[in-house]
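Researcher: Next entry in the queue.
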Amino acid sequence: NNPKEHAFASALGPRTLLTGWAEAYAATGRKTTAADDEEGTGTIEYARRHGAIAVNIECGQHKDPEAPHVAERAIRNALNYLGITNDTSLPKASGQKPRIVTVTHVFYRDDEGTFPKPWKHLEAAKKGEPLAFHADGKPIAAPADGFVIMPKADCPIGEEWFYFGVETSQ
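Model: Structure for this entry, 170 residues:
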C-alpha cells in the first residue's frame, strides 16, 4: 500500500496490482518464531526492508506464449520509469490505472478438501459463496465480495491452497 510502489508498478503495464501479501500472511497466525519470519522473507520483503521500491509482476502461466512479451515490456517500462533508458518504441500507456486487489486471506490446505469448481486466478466470488470444502464437507466461504487468487487444487496438505482478496482504491 505504498504510493511510490503503486506508481512504479502501474508504469510497468499491468492491469491488476496485488498487494497486502505480508499482512495476509501475518494474519494467519501460522508463524511462531522470529526464525519463521526470516524464513518467509523473499526478495520483495528484503528489498523493502532496505528502503527499495519492490514489486512482483505476474507475466502469465509457464506455457503462455505471451508471458515472455509481458516480461520484456515490463522490464523496458521499468527502465524508462527509472530514467535508465528513453525507449520511444514502447507503446504509450493507456492512462488507465490498474485495479488494486488487496490480499486479505491465505487459506492453507489442512486436509483432503476440494474446490466446488475449477477456480481461475482472479475469478470473482460473492460474499458467502463456497470457495472450497474441507474433507468433512464444511465450506470455506468467501469473507466478502472479492477474488480467488492463485488457486491450487492439487497442492499438498499444509501448503497455501488459495488466497482471497478484495478490490481496493489507490
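Model: The helical segments are 3-12, 21-28, 34-39, 43-49, 67-81.
Researcher: Noted, moving on.
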